[in-house]
Amino acid sequence: MTWSLAELSNKMKDIDFAMLATHTKGGAIAARPMSNNREVGYEGTAWFFTEESALMVADISADPKITLSYQGKSGLLGQRPFFLAVEGRARLIRDKTALTEHWTDGLERWWPEGPETPGLVLIEAQGERAHYWDGEEEGEIVLGNVSP
After folding, report:
1. 23: which residues sit within 8 A by CB, 6+ positions away?
2. What span, in angstroms and rounded, lies between the C-alpha atoms of 140 and 78?
3. Most exposed residue of 14, 27, 42, 108, measured as fewest CB within 10 angstroms of its CB?
4. Residue of higher predicted confidence among 40 and 55
5. pTM (2 decimals)?
6. Closest CA relative to residue 59, chosen from 86, 35, 103, 89
């Protein structure tokens, strides 16, 4: 049985962190934890804040292909893990209007100046394909235009 995007979003709603993987200049794969502040109403796009100086910004500028990995709890009394891998492309956004639109409470812990923080960058991670595993259930959802 293939899940709908709404069912997938429901599974993701309590997950706080994703591992964002990029391709480095040398061709290696680099991953780092990124918080979504448990504000997931996932419709195929995830949003993360970072700084211009972060290595992932250079990685995404050179190669926008990314993977997001999530681990949450299964619906079966939360006794088994739920896994999700989203393949897609990232876009770097520096527009103050977009930064303000996606700003959420709690981010000021890292950026006290809010969306006006110099060098603040918003990463738009547009999923193309999502692979999920929940116990013995597994499947794939095509989220958008799948790139070669």
Report:
1. 29, 30, 59, 62, 63, 65
2. 22
3. 27
4. 55
5. 0.88
6. 89
